[in-house]
Structure formats: structure tokens, C-alpha cells
Amino acid sequence: MSALLHLFKLLPDRDRIAAACVCKEWNGVSKHPSLWSTLDLHNCQNASQALSKLPHQYRGPLKIVNLEFAVDVTDKDLQKLHGNSVEVLNLNACQRVTDAGIIGLVSQSPNLQRLSLYWNVHVTDTPLYRLASMCTQLTHLNLSGCKRVTDKGLQAVAKNCHQLVDVDLTRCMEVTEKGYTAIAAGCQKLQVLRMYACANVNDATLKACGELLPDLRVIDICGAHLVTDNGAQAVAKCHKLEVVNFTWCVQLTDTAVCPLAAGCKGLQSLSLHGLRGITNQSIEALAANCRDSLHTLDVHGCIGIKTCEEPVQSYLQRSLPGVKQFVVHT
Q: What phi and psi values does residue 287 have, to the nearest 5 degrees?
């Protein structure tokens, strides 16, 4: 039995589920609790069928469920996981899963710490209300591409989920200043905040981040065309910042970058891609303050950076010898 159990531990979850159907002995081994703290069916093309074979006895020990890109999974399939108090739940790109399916699992998982719903276009605020009321220990929340989420859902999360350290709101187009500022006010332990391609990000959003998020290390506001130098300057108050994406924030100039360089001396990665208001002044500020830490810098399209006697690339490498990567946004 111990040798067979060891072999079962080596099998991917989808194969282990199939092996459980071979004979009574294998089925008995497959029910050992040590095999089922994690269920990983990511990229599985027949995850729905695999879940249908999970017997009732598997309910209880699961802590980590990864169904990322298991595109055939439905709410009915998720019911097979009821009875487990999950701590990590990844439903990325499970577009056949609705609010009801998410609520069903979240309601039984008060210790949930990580929830990822990337590109689930059916998700609304409704499961966020349940999440906020049930899962106050949540640390990571990925809502990237959840286009129907609004300020109300984020306000509910911000009210109760004060342990959040990583929030991804990429392409949450219905969210406005109210939602962003609520997250900053309610989740002051945040270290990572992604608002990529969120057209409603504005100066007030960034001022809230600067005033309320002292531990922020990563901020991504690519495409935030409403943000001006005044807003970007506020982010310089987040002195622990390591990664900043200002790509296509077209109003920004040296007046934004110079305070950032002075205030965030541990800056490691900075994208200024497409910013025509950036000149040599920004490069000099980065060289003076972030020379030892900066390893990635994208200044493609920064036509204000000029040199007379050497190519721009040579100038950049001479000024910032630690930078090894010059492309962030493609």
C-alpha cells in the first residue's frame, strides 16, 4: 500500500482521478487524505469530466484548487468541491463559471487567502459582497478583465478585507475613482496594485495611494491618460516602490519622474514608454538617485531624450550602467 501511495503522489491530479477508476484497490488508495490537499487541473481540456469522477470522500481536505484555463468547468462542476474550506482558489479564464458558482465555494471558505478570477467576464459585484463578508483574511485578489465589477464591489471588499497585499484591477473598466480610493483607504497593507488599462484612474487615485499605502512596492497605471504630474508626484511618497509602470500616461513629464527618483531610491523597474514630455532631466535624476537599484528602464517613444555626440542608447547605458533591460511594454 505504501509503495502504491507513493506512486499516486507522483501522478498529476487528472491522472490520479482516472487511476481511481481502475480497480477497488487503486480507488481505496486514491482516497488517502495526503493526496488531496491540492487539486491542480490547470489547462486541463476535460476538467469537467475529471471533476465528475471525484467521489464524495474527497470533500474536506482540499486547501488549494487550481482550475486556471480549465475552460469547460461550470457551476455544476464546482459543486463537487463543496465541503472543502479552500485557501487558494484559481478560476482564471473559467468563463462558464458564474457568480453563483463562485459564491458557492467562497461561502464555505472563510479562510480563503487568494482568489484569482482573471478574465471571467461574467463576474459581477455579487460574489464580491459574499467574499467581503466571509473571507476577511484574503491577501491576494485578481479581478483582471472582470469588466462588470464596479465601485460597489470594491467598496465592499475594502470595508472588510484589510489584509490584502496584492490587488489586480486590470481592465476593470466600470471602476472609478470611488472604487480605487476605497481600496487604498481600506487596504493599507497593499504592496502590489495593478490598474493597467483602467481609463478612470486619475490624480485623486494616485494621491490616495501616496497618502495611504506606505508599503506599496508595485504600481501599474499603464494607459492612465487622465493622470497629470500632480498625481504622479504623490506616488513618490510611497518610498518602498520598486516597480512603476507609467506607460502611455501621456500627460507626464520630468516633473513627475524627478520626484519619483528622489523619493524611491530602491526603484528597480520603470516604464516611461510613449511619454514625449520626458527629457534628459529624468535620466539624470534616475542616475543620481537610483543608479544602484534600477535594472529595467523603458523610454521608447520618449523623443525628448536627446544627445549630440553619442547614440541615445549609449547615453542611457553610460548614465545607468545597472540597467540591463530596455523594453517593458511591447
A: -65, -35
